Amino acid sequence: MRMTPTAIFIGALAILAAVVFVMVFWPYAQRDMTPSEIFRPRTLVEAEGRAIYIANGCVYCHSQSIRTFDWGHGAERIAQAGDYVSDEPILLGSQRTGVDLSQEGGEHPDDWHIAHFINPRYTRPNSIMPPFRWLGLEKINTLTRYIQALGLKQADQRMGRQTYWKKEAIQAYEAGPVYNVKWLAEHVPAGWRHIPNPYPTTAAGLMRGRRVYADFCIGCHGPIGDGMGDAQPWIYPPPLNFTILKDRQISGGILYYQIMNGITGTAMPYFKRELESQKIWEVGNYVAVYFINQSDANTAPHGIDSAWEP
Amino acid sequence: MASSANNDRPNHRTARAFCLTSAFWFAAAASFGMIGAGYLIAPDFMANIGWLHFGKARPMHVNLMLFGFVTPGLLAAAFYYVPKLLRTALYSEKLGVFTAILWNITLPIGVVGLAQGRSQGREYAEWPWSVDMLIVVLFALVIFNLVMTVRRRLEPIIYVSIWYVCAAVILTGTTYCIGNVIWKPSTGALLGIPDAILLWFYGHNVFGLLLTPLGLGVAYYVLPLATRSPLYSHTLSLIGFWSLIVVYTHIGTHHLLQVPVPTWLKTIAIVDSVAMVIPVMVFLINIWYTVQGKLGTIHADIGAKFVFTGTIYYFFVNIQGSMMALPQVQRVTHFNNWVVGHAHIGVLGFAGVVAIGGIYYVLPKITGRPLYSRFLADLQYWLLLIGVTGFAVVLTIVGLIQGNAWLNGETVYRVLPEIHLYYILRASLGVFIISGAYIGLYNIFRTLYFNPGAATACE
Ligand code: HEM
Ligand code: HEM
Hints:
By secondary structure, chain A is mostly helical. Chain A has helices at residues 5-29, 44-55, 110-118, 120-123, 137-148, 152-174, 177-186, 190-193, 203-216, 218-221, 252-261, 277-292. In chain B, α6 runs antiparallel to α7 and α11 (302-324) runs antiparallel to α13 (337-367).
């Protein structure tokens, strides 16, 4: 074959045209833009927040694309084409340096996000997300509106829950520490309330608990457990001051349940995804021993001793 | 030789301008890369510089590497070898220099746009609309200059390298317009899932229809000449060329295997990603057989040494790429640093290294003097080689840690402390690459200006 300029130009362009037709135009013509059952249009302020998201390249660290085999954030909802019908551009992302945000709305209340945007290390001590304090509170608020709408109708449902419990939690907090502690404990199912920490306190266990505390809790509850971590100014009701729990019948089971499940409406996140059972018992006991100064570890009722116990 | 068009010998001002453009933006883009790598280690460093945090430094880094370093570098060699192979002069050196100047105006506008947050938010298509338009103009100018040069040729036979350059600029000029949705200036995007399909059709064509053919063009020019060997096979060149265009254009959807796009699109993308073995191996067999037994000669010529090394990385990146397109593999590799490793092997190890090789090969012929410093060029070679190989190893390890941990149900947050060390290693290896970039800039600058070397016979 002799390669003439015509052969090169026309040949190459003809191939390209054919491929564009099949690989781009055809799927475009066949596109199904039926909204999925969770779809709703974004409000103006949410759209504004999305623009901030695009301008700041959040997409380089955050995907919005849940796969069939994901476990983490948002894994309850596998992405469908109909979830994206108002996205222009679509922000699927190609890196998950941070978590998937498809279903981020309502995962946390607003105050958690504000503190997190001011500096992610405040709520997540090991985070490598850049701080966005320089955006200013107004833009951070707008951005938070977008984040809280991620997940669309499912986000709205979760946000409804957050708003309801936020009101309750604030009321309880403002009624004073005695009431607040009682209120917090009352919402732990009865069975859990009466379970002491089944494992004995050991030096090694406390050291491990300390590490978990430093990696997950210190930004809110603070280095001495008084609730005065870096995030405190942004969070309301503020992070719990553990020292007020003394002599208030806070069992190991209550601590375990609260850490596992979080307290919806407050900034207290759930840790059931991040921490295995052992880590939850041990950070709970660390809090009990060092900050509450009162631990029920290894007291009755107590099942059969665990095989590893010294 | 070039007595054809006019009597005085060509001054190659266009090729010179593009060499310098490429060297400069390599250094600049590497600096942004270092900033990005710094953020992943210590996110609070430069905490209050809102226009340069990770989310902004990253697209600056990537786009400047693609459109500032690699593309102009590969074009620099082309602006020299296209007229030379056609036994004519470049249609217009003035137009060429103007193109280079406009190129260097366009990129800073783009960087400022990204700094201000005017990104369009689509990977590889971030430039704001005004910059998109300037890039389309740039491609039009390059196409015009090259096409007119081809028309004025005195050599009837058009060599393989020229097929590749012409196809690269024409096809990219076209896909750039489509992929950036330039008819919609406000968003530069389509709506919903079709946007993702279009974006990755375009995104993969940046590597497949721009960097790859330009790089192969340089390899087809430099390696046979440097070893004084005739090309192994014309038939293989033909097969390689046409199969590249046919197959490469089909595979963009392998970026979307885990996304709700039509299954038939994914199937085509996977099958053709594996079929990429054909154009890749055809090229490599052709070029490696051509230089068979001449590795000593290649070693002696710094330009050819870079280019040959680039072909080895070309082999690796494509084998790796075909693997990554398999759904089972992608379950582990997608969304993590494995892909970033692949990207650096491809864009730096293959396209970037070939671009530098092309520059070093043509510079002495352009200036009529030897390189300012062969030692510095060798040093740069080793710095880049260590850097990119280290990147490949480190980022692949991180990718496997992340991918397997996630697959087992670990959260992203829990894995962060595990990969911290590797981010430090990556930044340390980045120091090798950025040093190579600045050394190259100095060497190329001194070769063009204030070059003390004795003038040799000029071509
Ligand atoms: C046989 C050829 C190739 C195949 C089959 C291939 C395959 C792939 C696949 C499957 C991905 C997506 C990975 C993922 O997101 O999970 C990818 C990404 C990428 N490839 Fe290749 N590749 C090939 C050659 C190349 C070459 C030659 C280059 C560079 C010149 C290159 C540059 C890139 C880049 C930069 C990305 C990252 C895209 C992003 O931002 O997500 N590839 N490749
Ligand atoms: C100074 C040395 C370099 C450093 C420190 C560096 C660092 C980085 C960083 C931090 C990222 C973002 C990765 C992420 O999101 O996790 C990145 C992406 C990228 N870099 Fe570099 N880089 C360097 C050199 C280069 C060179 C020389 C090239 C090409 C010639 C290049 C091409 C790319 C590309 C194409 C991507 C996008 C990858 C993707 O989307 O998957 N880099 N680099």
